[in-house]
Amino acid sequence: MVRKSDARARAIAAAVKLFRIQGYAATGLTQILEESGAPKGSFYFHFPRGKTQLAEEAIDGYVAERIAVFRSISADTTGDPQQFVIRLFKAFADEMRASDFRYGCLMQNLANELATMDAELAQRIARGFADSTEVIAEHFRGCGFAPARASSSAAALVAALEGARTIARLERTPTIFEALAEVSCRGCHAAAS
Fold it and tell me: What mean pLDDT comes out for the span 137-156?
């Protein structure tokens, strides 16, 4: 029996990693192929539109994983906005430590580089942020936040998480996550009251 190739999945995983570390423009196809171990001949078979299609699929996979993490944390902290916030910041801090502070947010990196150059990718990135922010808002609504307050709190939390990731990368310490978790928890307490 012939084994189905995993070259496509390996190329996407390599692209996610490299885009998170060094961005889109600094990541070449040759580097993606070397990192993934995927044969060069299979790349255009799997991604006929080239690097742009690979970026689209990397974004989709990254967003799906991000949402799965958010939903898991939400399920573990049902009805408790403070613990939800603490666990989100902890998850981001743990990921930063595990990557030796090399990983940025794939969507943030690509948005910074491509938002003005590729409208389709910019829309996909915006949708990824909106979809993951909605998971947070949904949790907050389940904790009794008014709908508008849940949405604004979720948007602020995502901005804080992404900003914290950038600062942690620069400072090579997760301290900012702890500080922002504390401030965000105070905001959650006020919003739920």
Answer: 96
Q: Is the pTM of this model over 0.85?
A: yes
CATH for 55-192 is 1.10.357.10
Q: What is the tens place of the pLDDT at every residue in 5-39? A: 688 999 999 999 999 999 999 999 999 999 998 88
Q: What is the pLDDT of residue 75?
A: 98
Question: Would you list the domain boundaries of the chain?
Answer: 55-192
Compute the CA torsion angle 90, 62, 164, 158 (nearest 10 deg): -90
Q: What is the pLDDT of residue 3?
A: 44
Q: pLDDT at residue 1 above 60?
A: no
Q: How far apart are CA 137 and CA 148, in angstroms?
A: 9
